[in-house]
């Protein structure tokens, strides 16, 4: 008789609340303890969440201090940088930059009066655009 392997059945835990909203794209990020592509960053209403999709585990939540406007755009920096960051643009034109490891807000500014449409975050340079204006920021 051949030896067969038995595998444990995977039963995910229940997840409640907003998991992701359809307004923003889901992007895969990585940190030093996980392989590339094991974590995903998605907008969920007024906050951004880093999930581990394989285990349905919420790793980190980034929330805004004031106001409750939905996220319109988000971008994560490369993990190769010393301090990985997450830039989050909101529908009212505000942009918050969070430290991915600690969850603290490092910078915030208003990119325009209407929603942030696109962003790019490389090393210490953030380029973002709102519907009516373009803004370039170094931090």
TrEMBL record:
Q: Which GO MF terms are attached to this record?
A: snoRNA binding
Give the UniProt record's GO annotations in the biological process aspect: maturation of SSU-rRNA
GO CC annotation:
Pwp2p-containing subcomplex of 90S preribosome; small-subunit processome
Q: What is the lineage of its organism?
A: Eukaryota, Metazoa, Spiralia, Lophotrochozoa, Platyhelminthes
Organism per entry: Schistosoma mattheei
Which InterPro entries would you find in this protein's record?
TBC1_cilium_biogenesis, WD40/YVTN_repeat-like_dom_sf, WD40_repeat_dom_sf
Q: What is this protein called?
A: Uncharacterized protein
């Amino acid at each position: 008789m051949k030896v067969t392997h038995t595998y444990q059945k995977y039963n995910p835990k229940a997840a409640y609340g907003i998991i992701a909203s359809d307004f923003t794209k889901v992007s895969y990020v990585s940190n030093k303890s996980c392989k590339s592509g094991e974590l995903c960053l998605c907008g969920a209403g007024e906050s951004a969440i880093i999930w581990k999709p394989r285990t349905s585990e919420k790793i980190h939540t980034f929330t805004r201090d004031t106001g409750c406007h939905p996220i319109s755009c988000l971008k994560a920096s490369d993990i190769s940088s010393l301090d990985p960051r997450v830039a989050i643009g909101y529908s009212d034109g505000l942009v918050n930059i969070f430290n991915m490891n600690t969850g603290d807000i490092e910078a915030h500014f208003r990119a325009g009066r209407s929603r942030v449409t696109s962003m790019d975050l490389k090393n210490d340079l953030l380029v973002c655009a709102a519907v009516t204006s373009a803004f370039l920021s170094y931090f």
